[in-house]
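Dear colleague,

Thank you for sharing your sequence with our group. We've completed the structure prediction you requested, and as agreed, I am returning the results in plain text so they can be pasted directly into your records. Please verify that the sequence below matches your submission; if there's any discrepancy, let me know and we will rerun it promptly.
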Amino acid sequence: MNPNDATILILSASMQGSLGRPEEGRAGAEMACRLNPLYPSWYNYYKARLLFLSGRYGEASLLLEQRTFATPDREPRDMAWRAASYGHLDRIADAERCAATFLNAVGARWRGNEAPSAADYVNWLVDVSYLSEERDVSRLREGLRRAGLPT
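Please find the predicted C-alpha cells below.
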C-alpha cells in the first residue's frame, strides 16, 4: 500500500472501521486528509461512519448534515446514518425526520420484492454497511431504533 496515496488511505480507513477498528480508521482518514487538503467531499462519507463507530455521534452528524444538506433524497444511506446519530444524541424529532427521508428515498429506488417493509430497508442498510463486528451492527441498529425504525 502506498502511504502517500490519499485515496488508498481513505479506503483503507473505511476497511478498518468495517473490521471493528474505527480509531485506526480515523487515524488513516486524517492522514488522507492531510495528504490531500483539498480532498473530495466523498471522503466525508467514510469519515462520518468512522466517527459514528467511534461513538462520536455529534461529529458524525455534523459531517452527515454537510453531505445531505442540499440533496437529502439522493443520499439515503447517509440519511439513515444521520438518523442513527441523532438517535444516539436523543435528538428524536431530527432522527425521525431523517428516518422518514431514508424510507422515502429507498422506497423510490427499491426493486425486487413488491411489498418491502421498513424492516427490509433497515436490513438492507445494515447489510450494505459491511460491519463485521456485532457491537457495530448493534450500535447502528440501536440508533435506528431510537429514530423510530424497526430493527
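Summary note from our side: DSSP finds eight helices and no strands in the chain.

Kind regards,
the structure core
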